[in-house]
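Help! Submission page says 'invalid entity' but I think these are all valid:
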Amino acid sequence: MSVISFEVIYRGIFQKSLAVKISRTLILAAVKEGKPGISFGRYSDSPERNGIPAKQFGYIADNEEELETVAAQYEPKQVDISICVDDTLCKGVESWAWYGLQPINAVTKPGGTLIVTSNQKEDELVQHIHRRDTPYKLAIIPGEASFAGLWVYKDDGTDARCLAAALKAEPTMCSIASLESAIRENIGSETHIEAAREVYEDLRPVEIEPGQGNDEVPFTFELLKWHEMRQGVVIDGVGGHEGFRGGEGGYEPGRNPYFKKWSTRTMRPVVSFDKCTKCTLCWVACPDTCFDVTPDGFFDANMEACCGCGVCEAICPVKDCITMVNEVVFEERDSQWQMWQENKEDYDKYMDEKISVGKIEGRHPITGLGQAFSGIGIEMGHNPETAQVKSLQDLK
Amino acid sequence: MAETSEYNIGTQELPLMGKVNAIPEKAVEEYFTSGHRTCQGCESALIMRLMAKAAGPRSIILGSTGCMYVANTTYYSTPWVVPWMHTQLGSSGSAATGTAAALRALMRKGKMKEEPINVIAFCGDGGGIDMGVSSISAALMHAKYNLAIICYDNESYANTDIQISGASPWGANTTFTPPGKKFRIMHDCWKKNIAAMYAVGHTRCNYVATADASYPADLIDKVRKALAVKGPAFVHTLDPCPKGWDYDPFYSHKLGELAVETGLFPLWEMTDGALTYTGISARQVYGKRGRKPVREYLETQGRFHHFEEEDYEYFQSEVDKMWDDWMVPGVIPFKVNNPSKK
Ligand SMILES: Cc1ncc(C[n+]2csc(CCOP(=O)(O)OP(=O)(O)O)c2C)c(N)n1
Ligand code: SF4
Ligand code: SF4
Ligand code: SF4
Ligand SMILES: [Mg+2]
């Protein structure tokens, strides 16, 4: 029996259309060669929310019986290919359906391939990815994460490029010709096909050895079984409100311990306490109640709660006081205020360094139109008529 | 009146904020906290947080089905600190009345310590502007029950992936109204004027207000007034929703401001039958401040991305009518035909 299974790991809503397009087109390519397949979203990820990680799955089988056998499962326990369309998810996936932090490579088969769209290099990226006992391959498609909104599709070639990478990882799925015609029918222009070919030729997966990667133990917890639940499905409210970091003074709210927003954010606020006027606006406006009140009346964004919306940066009236910085440049979740208390010069250096490499710029109100023309693989992505392939060299 | 009807132990005394930087001093404690699964930049979640902050620890909160139920309290986990219970989609009014009536009866019969407990039922626009209108209307009839209904309006059935509701704005793209090649505008109703409708129709409801989380002190004070007044009260909030309105969550706060600055969502409160405009809306009504072109608000959202020049113009002309033609600007849309007749 030979069934090839894959998953697309993406950010809810922002990348929903992208993930569905990748998953469906791959199946349709295999169907062209008489192989039955199925593409489906994870039931419990729906309804999706902006930014909350979600998954799309697919199976390609040799015949109907094989397909029925695997499709009877709720979702695949292991997949041959994992496609991750936002590299900040390499820190782990905390989706609706999964309680705790699931490593990005959690269900990639031993020897299977993890494909990531990223501007990082393999050795940088692997530092974020949780280590495991079995080897796997890591393949990077160079480029930024492709984000769009519910009503806008960012047609920048990420779809075609991911498909080519998947085929390179599992060449038995279908022929290149079938993939190309599926891209032509379901995605569009010749430009996409050119972009796909380029990835197919250039992709160089690297072997990741057992034990290589981030040694943090991902946070998990046991779910209650149905017979352990209380009558009326009653649960305790959140308790544990106390002073800042359990000490005297300040205020730190208790928080839902089962859902931390470690992997919902693609960026985090960095606060310059020297500039802060304690105007309180960031604290008031945060929908996620992230800011702990410090004993001296500052507001310290707690990285166990922040989803990276950027509202605090938008509202702060002081120039350059709050800066949103790409999540990939951080390994720690420490209190920024405590770092600043311990050594102000060091903190300023830390802050400047993070901002210089990871500051989020070029915002556009409508998601998907922001940086639409910066291009990942295709320039002028919104108009297939005028779109041009951007060579990988240009991206370097 | 008979003895039982008069029994009302009153409401809590809740000091007002006045200005935003008084909030950490007067209400630092959180009663709706982190660890919900709403979208990045969800203003409805901020409404929950500020509403709970306003209500404080001695409160019972009921919530009808929608994002603020589904995204907040998934499988055996919660961000609520105060007691919270889910109620059916159209039932926020009945849930509030039932809870307030139960508390009143238990206290009157001496089965529970006499103490004013805030009862809030929240609902989305689907729950409070479409499906739950009759149950809310019933709840606003009974002066003997102290309760507040808060309708958090994200202008669609958001939880089920953005279907139009009676609160969706004219022309918006939703899953039920995608702009087509032949017909660009698939939703041609003007938003239901819900707060005024409840205010005008329920003369024993002593407090009705509109609010917006971009003006947090005003919002908290309105929730506190709704809880302090004896009998039922209704507050309608407008909440930018990055998923359904389709914008970068960074702009959530800005869009809440623009809704008021453009005159599209006037802020007001009605206390014992007297109307007061609040914040920027008050200055706009008295001509001390202009209204920004509504285009600034519309252009920032993907759901209006298909708009053409004539659509912006039509939208602006409708907003202008609200201010120039309505009997009570931005609130009550009548003209009086025979004003001189005494
Ligand atoms: C009687 C009933 N009909 C339909 C549903 C399905 N449903 C669940 S949430 C929801 C959307 C509710 O919209 P709204 O009240 O505006 O809240 P929002 O999701 O926008 O926060 C719907 C239709 C339901 N739960 N109950
Ligand atoms: S980015 Fe700022 S406002 Fe948004 S969740 Fe994080 S701390 Fe809160
Ligand atoms: S908004 Fe800016 S200035 Fe105001 S308290 Fe927050 S960090 Fe300080
Ligand atoms: S869909 Fe809208 S209301 Fe629902 S969680 Fe997302 S932002 Fe909030
Ligand atoms: Mg709604």
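Support: the input was valid. A stray whitespace character was the problem, and the output above is from the cleaned input. The longest helix of chain B spans residues 92-108.
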